[in-house]
Request: fold
Amino acid sequence: MSSLSTAHVLVEALPYIRRFAGKTVVVKFGGNAIAGTSEHDALSLFAEDIVLMHTVGIRPVVVHGGGPQINEMLTRLNIESSFSNGLRVTDAATMEVVQMVLNGQVNPQIVSAINTHGNVAVGLSGEDGRTLQCVPRDTSLGFVGDIERVRTHVIEGLLADGLVPVLSTVGVDVNGQPYNVNADTAAGAIAEALSAEKIIYLTDIAGLRKDIDDASSLIQRISVTDLSALIADGTISGGMIPKIESCMQAVKGGVKSAHILDGRIAHVLLLELFTDQGVGTMITGVN
Reply:
């Protein structure tokens, strides 16, 4: 890139930097996005984006899943796993693996990647300070939790100290029992509790499509009302439902917009936040 081209990029980014400075942006980093592609190290580029956001005054909060990593560990341990409506059925043995992988493997991996570029990330679990207080969703699902309350004091304390919270989505009930919480749902609840400006979901798809097999049918912007219709007619189904429902709930709860982006794209966060065109699908409260 020429010096002039670099200058044009910076000028294009300037109004967005001003607009979002001081604002909280929750970024859900999915296990599929962490895996990246053969072309680049998605985690390293994600870490660079987070540090740049932090440097220009945005307050990022990272919420992560780790589905593929949990699947891999369960397979290695010969523990069978099943899903119901996009949620992992979680017995006691599976719950131990979820804690081990999310708290002990994926969370430190993300924190380390961010701190390589700027020593600002702090890892925590939804268990810490009972940040994600849960109740059981359904006995048939085992230790799968619904969020009853998000206690934001730990997250807000880290943000006030100029740090980047990196949160794994293991919740806990009032008796200290840990629960597996869907990371998409957790991210939406956290964004709502923090009155975030945006919530951004990084995954392994380019965004929502009217026709899942047609890349040209990408939906660039959609309202909560129109999104509800796509769920009702079956256009959105399976594992996408928790993600979309959490987007909708966050926007209804006061988050200004929700975004679904392909985390495998190099610097996709910067493309969305700091360019006129943006990428992926944006969900808003109005048409």
